[in-house]
From TrEMBL:
The keyword Calcium does not apply. Gene3D superfamilies: Bulb-type lectin domain (2.90.10.10). One of its GO terms (molecular function) is kinase activity. This is S-locus receptor kinase. Residues 34-156 form the Bulb-type lectin domain. Keywords: Disulfide bond, Glycoprotein, Kinase, Receptor, Self-incompatibility, Signal, Transferase. It holds the Pfam family S_locus_glycop. The gene is SRK. GO terms for biological process: rejection of self pollen.
Length: 332
C-alpha cells in the first residue's frame, strides 16, 4: 500500500507540474505593454496592454449600443473613453469571444470559432528570433523581433494603418517608393467605428501637394499648401507653444506629422463622422478636449457639397440651385 500511495503522490505531483507549466506557457496578459508568442489577450479575461507612462491602453471594447466587439487603443487616463485606433473596425467580433495572439509571425485576432477576423498579414520570412508585440509610450502598437526594439526592427506598426486619428509622431501622406498612402477615415457614426464617409488625405496629382477632406470622391475642403510653418488653409484658433509641425517632401515621401513638447498634454488630429477635422488638446487640469483648430470653421459649410444626399442638419441650408434646395421649393 505504501508503494501504491507513493506512486499516486508522484503522479499527482507530475500532473500538477504539467498543468502549471501549461498555464505559464499559455498565460493571459494583464496590464503589461508586451505580448509574447506564448501569451494572449481575451475578451473574457479582460486583459489589456498598457503603454509605459500609462498614457495608452490596448484591449477589447464595444460601443454603447452595440453587441459587437473591437480591438482598439484608447487614452487610459481620459475619464471618458477616447479611441485612437481600431484594428478590426470593418470586421467586428459578433460575440463576446475573441483572442489576440501571435501565430506564424503574425498578430491575429480570432473569433468564437477560432477564425481570423483580423491579422497583420505579413509574409513569413527568415525567422531570426522570436517576435513580440509591444504598445509603445506614443501609442504605436508594433510587432518586432524580441532582440531588436529599435524602429528598424519593426515588422509591422499600427502607425502605418491609421483610423480616424493622427497622434504625435505619426505620419500622414504618401511614400513614393512603397506606394503606401496614410490617411484618416472617419467613424460611420459616433457609436460605430466602421469606416465612414469622410477621409483626410494627401493629393499629389496637381502642383503643390495638399491635404483634402473628402466625402467619398468629392473634395470638400483644402488644407492649403505648406507655407513653411503650417498648412495655410487650416485656420488656427490657437497656436500653442508646445506644438511643432513637420512637413517632408523628398524623393522618398511626402508626409506631415506633429509633435508636442509638454508630456502632460495630450493632442490628436481627428476627423469626426460629420467630416469635420479637429486638432484637439487635453490640457490638465481642464479635463476636457479643447479645439485648437477646425476645418471647416463653420459647421454648415461642411454640408454644402453634398446637399444632394438630403442629410443636411435642420440648422443649415443648401445653396440655391442644389438638388436639395430645388426639392424644398417643390415641397419634396
Amino acid at each position: 500500500m505504501k508503494g501504491v500511495r507513493k506512486n499516486y503522490d508522484n503522479c499527482c505531483t507530475l500532473s500538477f507540474l504539467l498543468v502549471f507549466l501549461v498555464l505559464i506557457l499559455l498565460r493571459p496578459v494583464f496590464s503589461i505593454n508586451i505580448l509574447s508568442s506564448t501569451e494572449y489577450l481575451t475578451i473574457s479575461g479582460n486583459g489589456t496592454l498598457v503603454s509605459p507612462g500609462d498614457v495608452f491602453e490596448l484591449g477589447f471594447f464595444r460601443t454603447t449600443s452595440s453587441s459587437r466587439w473591437y480591438l482598439g487603443i484608447w487614452y487610459k487616463k481620459v475619464y471618458f473613453r477616447t479611441y485612437v485606433w481600431v484594428a478590426n473596425r470593418d470586421n467586428p467580433l459578433s460575440r463576446s469571444i475573441g483572442t489576440l495572439r501571435i501565430s506564424n509571425m503574425n498578430l491575429v485576432l480570432l473569433d468564437h470559432s477560432n477564425k481570423s477576423v483580423w491579422s497583420t498579414n505579413l509574409t513569413r520570412g527568415n525567422v531570426s528570433s522570436p517576435v513580440v508585440a509591444e504598445l509603445l509610450p506614443n501609442g504605436n502598437f508594433v510587432m518586432r523581433y524580441s532582440n531588436n526594439d529599435t524602429p528598424s526592427g519593426f515588422l509591422w506598426q499600427s502607425f502605418d494603418f491609421p483610423t480616424d486619428t493622427l497622434l504625435p509622431g505619426m505620419k500622414l501622406g504618401y511614400h513614393r517608393k512603397t506606394g503606401r498612402s496614410r490617411f484618416l477615415t472617419s467613424w460611420r457614426s459616433s457609436d460605430d467605428p466602421s469606416s465612414g464617409y469622410f477621409t483626410y488625405e494627401l493629393d499629389t496629382r496637381r502642383g503643390l501637394p495638399e491635404f483634402f477632406v473628402m466625402y467619398n470622391d468629392i473634395e470638400l475642403y483644402r488644407g492649403g499648401p505648406w507655407n513653411g510653418i503650417e498648412f495655410s488653409g487650416i485656420p488656427k484658433q490657437r497656436k500653442p507653444y508646445y506644438m511643432m509641425y513637420n512637413y517632408t517632401d523628398n524623393g522618398e515621401e511626402v508626409t506631415y506629422k506633429f509633435f508636442i513638447s509638454e508630456q502632460s498634454t495630450y493632442s490628436r488630429l481627428t476627423i469626426d463622422f460629420h467630416g469635420i477635422l479637429y486638432q484637439l488638446a487635453w490640457i490638465p487640469p481642464t479635463s476636457r478636449w479643447t479645439a485648437l483648430s477646425t476645418l471647416p470653421t463653420d459647421f454648415c459649410d461642411n454640408h454644402i457639397n453634398y446637399c444632394e444626399s438630403n442629410r443636411l442638419p435642420t440648422s443649415c441650408s443648401c445653396l440655391q440651385g442644389s438638388i436639395a434646395s430645388q426639392n424644398d421649393q417643390k415641397g419634396v
